[in-house]
Amino acid sequence: MQQLFDSIRKKGGGRNSIEKKSPNIIEEISILMEYETAGDPMSGLLWTKKTREKISKELAKIDIKVGPTSVGKILKQLNYSLKCNSKKISNGGRKLTTDEKKERVDREFQKFWYSI
Asked: CA–CA separation, 29 vs 59, rounded Å?
């Protein structure tokens, strides 16, 4: 039975890594992130202002075909944190309209006012 599994795939078989296909991808991502990086100097945590999808599209413009998932893995190797804006999370992933903002402030004020 072991011989059957040994013959299915040769050692080193499978898909090539993105680093093998495009050896300069890490350098290109670093160049793209030069002005798009934010971070916490106390903890050394880094994050990017661009989404993985936007980075993937920017790389496609310079003939490096890579998907957002692979971009995320490379960013993780470069010690970037894959976080999104907390405001985006609290709003359900969308921007609030002016009326929604006013209603939210009014609700918070009412809670505060009636809790006194």
From this structure: 8
Number of Cβ within a 10 Å radius of residue 62: 12
CA distance 94 to 89: 8
- Beta-carbon contacts of residue 73 (< 8 Å; ≥ 6 apart): none
Note down pLDDT in tens along the chain; length 116 residues.
555 555 566 676 677 777 777 778 888 888 888 888 888 777 778 888 888 899 999 999 998 888 999 888 888 888 888 765 555 545 555 677 888 889 989 999 998 888 87
Decide: 36 and 59 in contact? Cβ < 8 Å: no
In one letter, which amino acid is 52? Answer: R
Domain boundaries, the chain: 16-83, 87-116
- pTM here? 0.57
- What is the rounded distance in angstroms from the CA atom of residue 83 to the CA atom of residue 46? 10
